[in-house]
């Protein structure tokens, strides 16, 4: 079987998804293609009908369509429904089902880098309350983390994530300044905003002055690879976790959903890092 895969969003010209999924196909000896379908918001419904007629096997969804696409799908996975966003769609003979692979991809990438990170009671801090934060929060809840704090510039927006918690999870809502003051309480800090992304690579959402040594500091920004937040974390003796690994592992889960194949990741993290460095996504 040949798999016809792709990505819809706007803009998508600089997406790394074709590179990643081509590597997955080579890794698993699967025949297929991965195309970019640039789709402005007013074109979404028409694009979905075109993809159905083209008999595409599945496709990824990126901004600005992750929420809007849900009303056009025939079925939405229960976790994606609770998160309120879809980034992966399966086309089963014209019937479209949506999934969200961000949170699972994040957890996989973190566990690969730090295998013991979920093996004892931990307290986590999530910075930001957008779509990525929702997926990561839900995945950490399902992973059994018992204490999670969510910090955001607007507390009311962070409170919107509380519908994703389960009974075993205690969640508090903080301002960024409150989180900064309590930083030594946390074993895992996850930065989910766009702060620090190129070209604004000299920005960071909070100071890490009170971070504990050996705390894992994670930033989902991957342009640049080594954000200002991660550089400060390393200087203070914290462990660092880079955003391009989440990008790769959420794509791995999407590929598994589409094909049933499980790409091996040993060399792919390094290959993606080299690709990003070649594109100039490094610190100046």
UniProtKB/TrEMBL annotation:
InterPro entries, sorted: Aminoacid_DH-like_N_sf (IPR046346), NAD(P)-bd_dom_sf (IPR036291), SDH_C (IPR041121), Shikimate_DH (IPR011342), Shikimate_DH-bd_N (IPR013708), Shikimate_DH_fam (IPR022893), Shikm_DH/Glu-tRNA_Rdtase (IPR006151)
Binding site for NADP(+): 128-132, 152-157, 220, 243
Active-site residues, record numbering mapped to chain: 66 (proton acceptor)
Catalytic reactions on record: shikimate + NADP(+) = 3-dehydroshikimate + NADPH + H(+)
Shikimate dehydrogenase substrate binding N-terminal domain location: 7-89
Annotated CDD domains: NAD_bind_Shikimate_DH
Enzyme Commission numbers on file: 1.1.1.25
Pathway participation: Metabolic intermediate biosynthesis; chorismate biosynthesis; chorismate from D-erythrose 4-phosphate and phosphoenolpyruvate: step 4/7
Domain Quinate/shikimate 5-dehydrogenase/glutamyl-tRNA reductase, first and last residues per copy: 120-208
Binding site for shikimate: 15-17, 62, 87, 102, 222, 250
GO MF annotations in UniProt: shikimate 3-dehydrogenase (NADP+) activity
Statement: the UniProt record of this protein carries the keyword Membrane: no
Alphabetized UniProt keyword annotations: Amino-acid biosynthesis, Aromatic amino acid biosynthesis, NADP, Oxidoreductase
Cited PANTHER family: BIFUNCTIONAL 3-DEHYDROQUINATE DEHYDRATASE_SHIKIMATE DEHYDROGENASE, CHLOROPLASTIC, SHIKIMATE DEHYDROGENASE
Family of the protein in this entry: Belongs to the shikimate dehydrogenase family.
Annotated function: Involved in the biosynthesis of the chorismate, which leads to the biosynthesis of aromatic amino acids. Catalyzes the reversible NADPH linked reduction of 3-dehydroshikimate (DHSA) to yield shikimate (SA).
Assembly mode: Homodimer.
Protein's UniProt name: Shikimate dehydrogenase (NADP(+))
Provenance organism: Sediminibacillus dalangtanensis
């Amino acid at each position: 079987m040949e798999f016809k895969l792709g990505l819809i969003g706007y803009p998508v010209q600089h997406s790394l998804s074709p590179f990643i999924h081509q590597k997955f196909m080579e890794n698993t000896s699967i025949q297929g293609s991965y195309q970019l379908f640039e789709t402005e918001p007013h074109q979404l419904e028409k694009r979905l009908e075109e993809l159905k007629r083209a008999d595409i096997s599945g496709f990824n969804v990126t901004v600005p369509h992750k929420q809007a696409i849900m009303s056009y799908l025939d079925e939405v996975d229960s976790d994606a429904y609770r998160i309120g966003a879809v980034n992966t769609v399966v086309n089963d003979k014209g019937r479209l089902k949506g999934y969200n692979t961000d949170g699972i991809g994040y957890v996989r990438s973190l566990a690969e880098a730090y295998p013991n990170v979920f093996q004892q009671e931990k307290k986590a801090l999530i910075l930001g309350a957008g779509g990525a934060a929702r997926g990561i929060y839900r995945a950490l809840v399902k992973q059994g983390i018992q204490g999670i704090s969510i910090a955001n510039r607007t507390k009311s927006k962070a409170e919107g994530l509380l519908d994703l918690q389960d009974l075993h999870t205690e969640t508090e809502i903080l301002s960024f300044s409150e989180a900064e003051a309590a930083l030594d309480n946390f074993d895992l800090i996850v930065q989910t905003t766009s702060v620090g992304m190129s070209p604004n690579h000299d920005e960071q959402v909070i100071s890490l002055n009170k971070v504990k040594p050996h705390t894992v500091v994670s930033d989902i920004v991957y342009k640049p690879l080594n954000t200002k937040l991660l550089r400060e974390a390393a200087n203070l003796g914290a462990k660092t976790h880079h955003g391009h690994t989440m990008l790769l592992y959420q794509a791995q889960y999407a590929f598994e959903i589409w094909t049933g194949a499980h790409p091996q990741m040993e060399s792919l993290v390094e290959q993606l890092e080299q690709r990003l460095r070649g594109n100039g996504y490094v610190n100046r």
